[in-house]
């Protein structure tokens, strides 16, 4: 039975070496890192060594790495933690119209608390402009939050350019949702001006339920979780040691394999683009030269969910625009809407997202299936 997984932006398969270190950690280092006895000390040593390994990959200090439960928590913490900490100095936040719901919903929450949010528009490729950002800055702006790589179409935002603009505004917190960006840039943080950066282990062959918020040492955040004072008093709760150790390993492997993997994904996209450009019934929403692992397209008249199930019948797992919105069938993708894609075309959108295991043979198979589906849907219409 064919099983081709093209839904890596939703989640990735756990790497087998990562799983092994997770199991070893659970079996051997079961002590609580906060306990005073030797089992606690051993667990704490392992925790701090995973933190140091991750800090080395980030090229930052170990104390700047805060472990969380994933991308959603990291984003909530960056946004709400900044708002609570700096709300007395200003109540204006700048973000974009194409953020992940964990950012968008956090911002809506803050708007209900009286914060004012400017949502920057995007162009047809899904990109914000650093000039628009500069124009939106105000005396009371406390936070700028922009994602590095869009999860629906793969647009790479001008994080470094925005960083240059924000060099002139040193008091503003600069948060980047980097959940889809690990391995796509040589420097994880992309630009030294970035103060807060979110990652999630299950997007890079690590386990679910564990993530990172990088926080530049001099920036202050109010904690969302109060309790035992773990993570430097910033994120209470007993640490998910096995998840953290596994995440450190998954991060290292991802960074080591990144350039080869990106080159492969680029070739996959090129082949699919060449195929689809020959038939005007296809539309491609992912601009060329954006993130190589995300490819969003549509076939005229075929709703995204119909395409997803037709592909599934052939053993190919894809998604509509994002896993989070997949089940909300009546909600058009807000990213495609912001890019100016007409409603019916947006409803035809289907996303392929590549991971470390995919091969060119799988792409060839996908294109054969597409031939079949194009003929099949043409008969129905
Ligand atoms: C860009 C982006 N940010 C945040 C998240 C949320 O991450 P998590 O599933 O770890 O909460 C996702 C997950 O799809 C994402 O793609």
Automatic annotation (TrEMBL):
- Give any Pfam family that matches: Aminotran_5
Cofactor(s) required for function per UniProt: pyridoxal 5'-phosphate
What is the originating organism of this protein?
A: Aerococcus kribbianus
What is the designated name of this protein? Cysteine desulfurase family protein
Q: Which GO terms describe its molecular function?
A: cysteine desulfurase activity; iron-sulfur cluster binding; metal ion binding
Protein family according to the UniProt entry: Belongs to the class-V pyridoxal-phosphate-dependent aminotransferase family. NifS/IscS subfamily.
Q: Cite the entry's keywords alphabetically.
A: Iron, Iron-sulfur, Metal-binding, Pyridoxal phosphate
Annotated InterPro entries: Aminotrans_V_dom, Aminotrans_V_PyrdxlP_BS, Cysteine_dSase, PyrdxlP-dep_Trfase, PyrdxlP-dep_Trfase_major, PyrdxlP-dep_Trfase_small
Q: Which residue range or ranges hold the Aminotransferase class V domain? A: 4-366
Superkingdom: Bacteria
